[in-house]
Amino acid sequence: SNIIYLRDNYKDDHYYYRIVVFTGYRKNSGTKSKIYFKVVGDRGETNVRIFSNETHQIFQRGQIDTFIMTVPKSLGSLHYIHIWHDNQNNQSSSSWF
Asked: 3-88 in CATH: which number?
């Protein structure tokens, strides 16, 4: 899979995080909804970020997507990532597994 640099990264950021997302294999596992997320560590948390790519479909059934997120300072030891979507598009492509 290609490495996707998040659209909302800043060129002056000094810390890089790789986020790998596995989408399930079941029927209708993929989504066309917009996927948002926030990463929380013991030294801070990100603003709300969005997974996006203009050149190819992401979050398709059975697909592995790799993203690079940049931030201005270290988040420290990571605790969790909160992920949600906007439930857009038709019903069969809005949910995500």
From this structure: 2.60.60.20
